[in-house]
Design goal:
Distance between the termini: 64 Å
Order of helices and strands: EHEHEHEEHHHEHEEHHHEEEHH
Shape: globular
Strand order of the largest sheet: 1-3-5-4-2
Number of strands: 11
Length: 398
Amino acid sequence: MVAKISCGRSIKSALHYNESKLAEGKATLILSSRFGCDADDLAVWQKLARFDSLIKRNKKVKTNTVHISLNFAPGEQLVLGTLQYLAADYMQRIGFADQPFLVYQHHDAGHPHIHIVTTNIRTDGKAISLHNIGREKSEPARKALEQIYGLVVAEGRRQRVDLPAVMTPVTYGKAETKAAISNIVREITSTFRYASLEELNAVLRYYNVIADPGLPGSRCWSHRGLTFSIVDSEGGKVGIPIAASSIYGRPVLAALEKKMDANRVLGMQKRRRLRQAVEKVLASGSPGAARRFLERASITCHQAVSGGSPDLFLIDHLNRTVISVRGEGFRVPEIAHALRLDADGSTAITLLAQAPVAADFLFIDSAKLLHELTTDTHPQGEYLPSELLKRKKRRRKQ
């Protein structure tokens, strides 16, 4: 089992992401804890209102949303009751048993997985610490649950530890534009190692999406904005662009630049593997041998224009890393000649191989819950909204 924890600032966005899957028939709400009624009886506004009632008790805490995904190995088919108990058990072990949470089972990936939405703001207005929650709380919980429920041990897998969603290229008109773009962007920006916007776009174009910071001098460029659009087979943008700030997780330019800086350091070893692949391509005796090598290594090669000049990008789909051939100091014409690619400066993408899919209840005390939902649990004078809290003025020393 693999657990991923995302901490954010918008409970509405996390809820919308899962509710949109529910509306499309790609997810099922399998458990609602501490909502006072069955999951099937809850309306969307009631779910949001329950979370908001806690979040409003401490407006000073900006990171108030916790979105968790528990991913299981392909082939592990867990029955509904087991998923419910497992989710509740996990939440208890990480210290969220007394928090309201919703559990959604998603059906849109190549492996079984569930999503959990909750808040870290408690009924007394205090926030549950999220510092090192993955290492100190989630990891011990994951290991314990793997033993209890007989799950595939994540650390024992030969391939990737995390299990990425199965993604297919977006086709304009076949799915709701924002949802289609959001799914691709969220997965790629969070799991791939890229060191520039051009490298990120090389991966995004594989799925018919592009990130656009706007033309120099434009309003979008001046305000450091970023939009994502669907592109057709010719590389032209189609449909309405989606602002990065409106996508769950907010993959805005400033946030992506921080990831790029980190990727240059954290992804050095994986980028070295791609540089070695380029060297092997140059040393290969024939284009056929070079192509077969890349195909066996799950590496695809794409042509694009970067900075006004032709460039090649190598994408390692197994290790989820991308490099610019020119940016790594290699001569693009030499690589293009070794692979017999069209060197006409076209922005079209040449695909050498298809990307592989990486293989790689609590029983709640109803009386206690009813009391919590209907009674003011704060002693008189102990709890005040943050707006009414004023700092005490310090007296100046005479």
